[in-house]
């Protein structure tokens, strides 16, 4: 899809999401350094179709780009079209699926619990584990955060096939662990959130 066609879809969905901002293909808001958003993803199959993601993203984890690790495609990955009938169906899907999903994130007392309930797979996805540990730290659950960080570091150290991305996670977790041990995790989490906003081109937090 062309950028202007994506912009038309975004514009048609904005009334369903009062209080949300827009950034390119994304409609979003932020609360407590957590992004809550809906994003249009070009299907890459033709000039008219697209997918729609609903997701949250902790901004206080190290980011290099927008990721959908903490979300899902609407309607089990349905491919939408930009015609009026499809947009009407999409609007209903957003009301039925996306809004309740975002509401559950918005009203959650502990994001760590939300992340803990995401299936990390048999090998325990390291990105999810890192987000879980950082969320524990942000919530003031220092001891569980330290335990989780040490487990991540140990898993990477014991892996016979470490990759650059797993070594980066280990490095980040070692840094967080050091900051937790001297009660400086708050400053690090703030710096990470600020950096994520810059990378994603988001407005400063209100």
Write structural notes for this entry.
The chain is α+β, with helices and mostly antiparallel strands. It folds into two domains: 3-106; 111-200, no CATH class. 50% of the residues lie in helices and 15% in strands. It has seven helices and five strands; from the N terminus they run αβββββαααααα. It has helices at residues 3-13, 84-106, 111-116, 126-138, 142-158, 164-181, 185-200; strands at residues 21-23, 26-31, 34-42, 50-58, 71-73. A five-stranded antiparallel sheet has the order 1-2-3-4-5. It is elongated, with a radius of gyration of 18 Å. The mean pLDDT is 94.
Keyword list:
5-stranded antiparallel beta sheet; 206 residues; alpha+beta; 2 domains; elongated; 50% helix
Overall domain count: 2
Cα-atom radius of gyration: 18 Å
Percent helix range: 40-55%
Count of DSSP-assigned helices = 7
Report on the biggest sheet: 5 strands, antiparallel
Would you kindly provide a brief summary of this structure?
The chain is α+β, with helices and mostly antiparallel strands and about 210 residues long. It has seven helices and five strands; from the N terminus they run H-E-E-E-E-E-H-H-H-H-H-H.
């Amino acid at each position: 899809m062309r950028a202007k066609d994506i912009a038309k879809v975004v514009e048609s969905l904005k009334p369903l999401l009062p209080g949300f901002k827009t950034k390119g293909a994304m409609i979003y808001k932020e609360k407590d350094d957590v992004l809550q958003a809906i994003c249009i993803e070009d299907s890459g199959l033709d000039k008219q179709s697209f997918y729609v993601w609903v997701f949250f993203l902790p901004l206080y984890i190290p980011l290099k780009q927008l990721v959908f690790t903490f979300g899902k495609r609407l309607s089990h990955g349905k491919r939408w079209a930009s015609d009026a009938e499809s947009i009407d169906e999409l609007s209903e899907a957003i009301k039925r699926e996306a809004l309740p999903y975002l509401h559950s994130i918005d009203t959650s007392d502990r994001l760590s619990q939300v992340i803990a309930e995401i299936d990390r797979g048999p090998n325990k996805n390291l990105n999810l584990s890192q987000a879980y540990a950082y969320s524990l730290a942000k919530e003031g659950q220092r001891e569980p955060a330290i335990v989780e960080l040490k487990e991540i570091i140990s898993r990477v150290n014991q892996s016979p096939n470490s990759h650059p991305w797993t070594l980066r996670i280990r490095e980040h977790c070692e840094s967080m662990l050091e900051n937790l041990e001297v009660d400086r995790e708050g400053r690090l989490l703030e710096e990470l959130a600020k950096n994520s906003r810059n990378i994603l081109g988001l407005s400063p937090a209100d």
